[in-house]
Structure formats: structure tokens, C-alpha cells
Amino acid sequence: MKRDPQRPQECPGRPQGQPEPPPPPPSSSSSSSSSPEPPLWIFGYGSLVWRPGFEFTSRKVGFIRGYSRRFWQGDTFHRGSEKAPGRVVTLMEDGGACTWGVAYEVCGEQIAASLQYLNMREAVLGGYDTKLVKFHPQDKDAEEPIQALVYIATPQNPSYLGPASEEDIAAQIMASSGCAGHNIEYLLRLADFMRYFCPQAEDKHLFSIEEALISILPCMCHTEETLEETSGVPQKTKS
């Protein structure tokens, strides 16, 4: 249960002419116990929507305004290699757009642990910087937007690849694989998240790349062996 910080007690009046008593010695336990650390919300819009990798207290599906999701960030570790970089998403400023994803609430000891984990996963290995944004939960009973931390790869980072056609991006994704699995899995899992959890939202960029990928796959019906090689890509059934 959330607790408000304790209000300082009012001191009774002191008789006139009596010297003011010295302040009490500082207590290391009083400040920490009376002012619990507020929770932190972390917004994910890529692989964090299905694989956060850290402990959290709660999560909400929703969106942030002013950004578009784009497969413009290179990845030479999680979904690619130095010889064949993968393509993962970042956010680009776009005043009229919104990006859907998942916000995770972390509390207490979860805060430091999650930030340490994400600093390595997103910043050191991914090239992402942090920024605070306003997250709008999907819940109808949500009142105010929630301030959340988000990781964004800017064009200034060395792994940034920039724009390309949907067909070129799909071809690069099809040929890339990294420590976290095949780049195809990354694309299809993200598309599935949007399709099942945000059916009312549009993401033309994402679904156009998915369509381009399917059109250039050597076979529309994957065997179980192919499925294993691509780290669990959903199987297509014959029509």
C-alpha cells in the first residue's frame, strides 16, 4: 500500500527567555522509514513488451504521444552480429503520432536492480539513452498520465542505421540473428503484441515490414526444423 511521507510534528511553544534546545542528532533510520522511495515506471515499446527481464510490481498497456516507432536502430548483439547487424526499434520525435507499449512499475529494491539490468541491456549493449515521457494507460478508469522512463536510440549513437525501405529492412531482419535469438522472432513478436493487445491502434511501419518479410520468405509453411532455427517463430499453416 502506498504511504504518504509523514508530516513533521509541530513543536509546543517555548517559554520566553529560555534558550532554544540544541537540535537532536540526525537519525539514519528516521528519514528512510518516513519517506519511502516512490515507484518508478519504465515504458517498453520493443522486446520489453514481452521480455522485460527484471522483476516488477505491476504493468499496464498504453501509449506515449509525440513519437513514432521505427526499425532504424542497428543491433550487433541481441538480434544481430558485427558481420550481419540486425534491425530493432527506436523512437523518433513525431508530434502527431503515438507509440503503444507496456509500462512496468518497479518499487523498492526493484528500482535499482531493474535500472542496473537495463543500463547494460539497453544502454551499454544497445546504444540507447534515457528520457522521461508521459505514459497514458489503456485502462478506462485511468486518471492522469504517468511519468515513465523510456530508452531511446538517437541518430547520434554509433549503431544507428536510419531509414530504409520496408523491403530492405525485412531482408536485413531475415538474415540476422544474435544472442537473444533471430531477428525474425523480434519482428513477429512485436507485431503479435500490437495485434492482440492494441487492436485499435495502427502501426503502418511495423505491419508493412511484417508483410514484406512474409512475402520474401522462401516458404510460407515453416517446418518444425525451420521453427527451431529461428528461435520460435510462429508457424504458418497451409491454406
Which value, in Å, is the CA radius of gyration? 24 Å
Question: What percent of residues adopt helix (DSSP H or I)?
Answer: 25-40%
H/I helix tally: 6
Please write the string of helix (H) and strand (E) elements: HEEEHEEHEEHHH
Structural class: alpha+beta
Mean pLDDT: 83
Count the E strands.
7
Low-confidence stretches: 1-33, 219-228, 230-239
What kind of assembly state do the chains in view correspond to? single chain
Shape: globular
Major β-sheet annotation: 5 strands, mixed, barrel
Percent range for β-strand residues: 25-35%
Provide a descriptive summary of the structure in words.
With 239 residues, this protein is of the alpha+beta class. Helix 3 packs across helix 5 (204-216). The protein contains six helices and seven strands; from the N terminus they run αβββαββαββααα. The protein has helices at residues 28-34, 109-124, 166-174, 183-197, 204-216, 224-229, and strands at 40-44, 58-75, 86-106, 129-137, 146-152, 177-178, 181-182.
Quickly describe the structure.
By secondary structure, this protein is α+β, with helices and mostly antiparallel strands. It is built from six helices and seven strands, in the order αβββαββαββααα. The longest helix is centred in the middle third of the chain and has 16 residues, at 109-124.
Give the topology.
Layout: H1 28-34, E1 40-44, E2 58-75, E3 86-106, H2 109-124, E4 129-137, E5 146-152, H3 166-174, E6 177-178, E7 181-182, H4 183-197, H5 204-216, H6 224-229
Parallel strand pairs: 1-5
Antiparallel strand pairs: 1-3, 2-3, 2-4, 4-5, 6-7
